[in-house]
């Protein structure tokens, strides 16, 4: 993905690395008051996802939207860092205008402010185009000391935007954080949840940290924060507000494109057999032979 | 039904419902079985700012009224009346401060209540005094710039957990009820101790203990209002609290109806869901009608109080009497609709039926409610002659 084929005309019109190089020198830490950004995504509630059998796209009509559950842990961690060390928590999301609801809900949990990135030009963005757009929005916000994301979104399940965002910004990425602690004014130590245990890594700020649900227990919204959230002015930034061309964003700026979404073929009905192990073994053997799997 | 609630009121109710769904329902059976005091849920309520609904903004609360309070109580009672009683009883202990506290007392005691760092309790009942508030035996004797309190308060909700206790004691026994006064007694005051945790039929997540006062010497600035105001303070506190008891009943009954109706949809007998049988339908129809009638009454009285009504004793008694009798009946009916399932602890209506009974008893028995309403009617119709 990083190797650009200069001979391909179709890729020439896309954004990618040449027109927008990765930030070669990471920005310094801004101040003692941490500028924390939490990236959230509005997703359809999982158990209600339906595919349109004709178009193979998600049917979103009448489906309840929620904040991606992992992002709530990211927000909680951002709030905890703010409470422990001072600073502000700014929410950032890219999505259709109704994603504002997700931002207001998250403001009700105690974030200080929110920015919505929304423009028709951003439609169809893959993870790269999304990360690039978010990075430019963070630039416009004056940078960040600590950026939190959930480990992945429950709709696309790509887990790509966080690492790509860090790559574009030229800052460390620490994934699957299950514990975060400060070891200095601008240094953190993070326990990363792995398949069989965890490792501990140190990172300098600014950094992007993606979190797993083991890291904390998200708080309840508070009434005062919800009242404030209702009135909060949420700026909406479009293509014209960001230092990007139309060729860098949305479908045009994407390396990948969803060709087809389909449900896995049904696996047939499962059966549970009970009884004496020897009898069961014979029965399984017989069944396998019957299925021609010998 | 749409009760024309404001957006803010709906937001408040939805927040309380979220706590019920996410924090109360998953643990209510365990809290009940093991008689666990719900400190964790109190922390959740505090985080959500709900420990300060009726406390003025100047003291860190939300400064909301009776209607907002009953909306929250109803939503919490849909989860567990034991938890909701703990929460409501703290406000019962706080009303005397709100009504009669001076500025210093309010500054000292209301902010920790609003933040949910402390709970309050209201201590009126004694072994020989409950409905008959004039028969109080606890005494408070003035000694220089202090009062010395002696006596035993019985069945006090939140006692032993609450930091702030409003205690009614006699400063002048000769005057009967007019000789009662109200004091703020802190949990840690020397001479204060607590009896064993009572074992109850229902609301087992809440605690009920004796408060034992032995030569409790407290500064005179702990007196609420003036000497002799204990009785009027008690009456006004209970007037404000009674729609709350009604709201607990509405939430409980709604929850029992929800369980019974959902069950009746699922349970099949004779080849059809039992909700298709008229015998069951009629029971559910009566239950739903009574719940809605009770809710309408509670909201109306709450709005009447919020309008600045001066004398709402009769209305408040009605807002406690009808819903709590209704909740007892509805929970019994819910168990009946669910049959053997309803009687089993595995299903929540068994607990709901046990929890309902106390609502007819505490904060003034329903017989006392009828006395209050009857007395008011007697007065009203005498004037009309």
Could you give the topology of this structure?
The complex is a heterodimer of chains A (294) and B (385).
Chain A: H1 9-12, H2 16-19, E1 34-39, E2 42-44, E3 50-51, E4 58-59, E5 65-67, H3 69-85, E6 87-94, H4 99-107, E7 113-117, H5 127-140, E8 146-150, H6 161-169, E9 173-184, E10 187-194, E11 197-204, E12 207-211, H7 223-231, E13 236-237, H8 277-290
Parallel strand pairs in A: 1-6, 1-8, 6-7, 7-13, 8-12, 9-12
Antiparallel strand pairs in A: 2-5, 3-4, 9-10, 10-11
Helix pairs in contact in A: 4-7, 5-6
Chain B: H1 7-24, H2 28-34, H3 39-47, H4 66-77, H5 81-100, H6 103-114, E1 120-123, E2 139-143, E3 146-157, E4 164-170, E5 180-186, E6 192-194, E7 208-219, E8 223-224, H7 230-266, E9 268-269, E10 272-273, H8 278-306, H9 313-343, H10 349-359, H11 366-383
Parallel strand pairs in B: 1-4
Antiparallel strand pairs in B: 2-3, 3-7, 4-5, 5-8, 6-7, 9-10
Summarize the structure.
The complex is a heterodimer of chains A (294) and B (385). Chain A is an alpha/beta fold and 294 residues long.
Kindly list the characteristics that best describe this protein:
heterodimer, A: 294 residues, alpha/beta, Rossmann fold, nine-stranded mixed β-sheet, two-stranded antiparallel ribbon, 13 strands, 27% helix, B: 385 residues, alpha+beta, Butyryl-Coa Dehydrogenase, subunit A, domain 1, Butyryl-CoA Dehydrogenase, subunit A, domain 2, Butyryl-CoA Dehydrogenase, subunit A, domain 3, 3 domains, four-stranded antiparallel β-sheet
Describe the structure.
- The complex is a heterodimer of chains A (294) and B (385).
- Chain A has helices at residues 9-12, 16-19, 69-85, 99-107, 127-140, 161-169, 223-231, 277-290, and strands at residues 34-39, 42-44, 50-51, 58-59, 65-67, 87-94, 113-117, 146-150, 173-184, 187-194, 197-204, 207-211, 236-237.
- By secondary structure, chain A is an alpha/beta fold.
- Chain A has a single domain, classed as Rossmann fold.
- In chain A, the strands form 3 sheets. Chain A has a 9-stranded mixed sheet, with helices on both faces. Chain A has a two-stranded antiparallel ribbon with strand order 2-5. Chain A has a two-stranded antiparallel sheet with strand order 3-4.
- In chain A, helix 4 (99-107) crosses helix 7 and helix 5 packs across helix 6 (161-169).
- The two termini of chain A are 42 Å apart.
- With 385 residues, chain B is of the alpha+beta class.
- Chain B has 11 helices and 10 strands.
- Chain B folds into 3 domains: 7-119, Butyryl-Coa Dehydrogenase, subunit A, domain 1; 121-230, Butyryl-CoA Dehydrogenase, subunit A, domain 2 (Beta Barrel), CATH 2.40.110; 237-383, Butyryl-CoA Dehydrogenase, subunit A, domain 3.
- Chain B is globular and about 80 Å long.
- Classes of the chains: A alpha/beta (294), B alpha+beta (385).
- Chain A binds chain B through residues 219-224, 226-227, 230, and chain B through 7-8, 11-12, 15, 18-19, 22-23, 44, 47-50, 62.
